Amino acid sequence: MNAMPEIPDHLDYGLSILFIGFNPSLQSGETGHHYANPRNNFYRILYRAGLTPRLYEASEDQDLLRLGYGFTNIVARPTRGIDDIDRGEYAEGRKILHAKLLEYRPKVACFVGKGVYTQFSQKSKADWGFQPDPVIPEIHEFVAPSSSGLVRMPMEEIVAIYRRLAEHIAEHGS
């Protein structure tokens, strides 16, 4: 087991969006910031989709709380990759995430990757965007592509999916 400390969630009540990842990368574990791997496109995607007014750095992740955006993961332990996460960690992470969502009740739970959503929801598949049958009915569940640099989907397609989130927030208020 990796003894690297868990990175802190950025949670608050009344969030517009809670971004939920699989688990932190080793670089996130080393720096203590979400999406810290320089090959991860998370902050570039948010900016290009119109979710942030400027390009943020991973070291500023806590500042996104002021925009109404929070961060958590289904598994808190940093690893080299998702293959290093076992079923027991997912089962425990599901329970913890469900409790966080019930307590904080963000307007939108954005799952950064289909696999994150299918692990949480226990559904076999999901389409991009808002889910028709959310696990927690009062919370909109949105499935977005992973922001990992390993994703093969063209950046424009990824940004277009995240842009739907920006449009939802603009339409329904933050």
From TrEMBL:
It comes from the Bacteria. Pfam families: UDG. GO terms for molecular function: pyrimidine-specific mismatch base pair DNA N-glycosylase activity; uracil DNA N-glycosylase activity. The keyword Cytoplasm does not apply. GO terms for biological process: base-excision repair, AP site formation. Residues 9-155 form the Uracil-DNA glycosylase-like domain. Keywords: DNA damage, DNA repair, Hydrolase. InterPro entries: MUG/TDG (IPR015637), Uracil-DNA_glycosylase-like (IPR005122), Uracil-DNA_glycosylase-like_sf (IPR036895). Gene3D superfamilies: Uracil-DNA glycosylase-like domain (3.40.470.10). This is Mismatch-specific DNA-glycosylase.
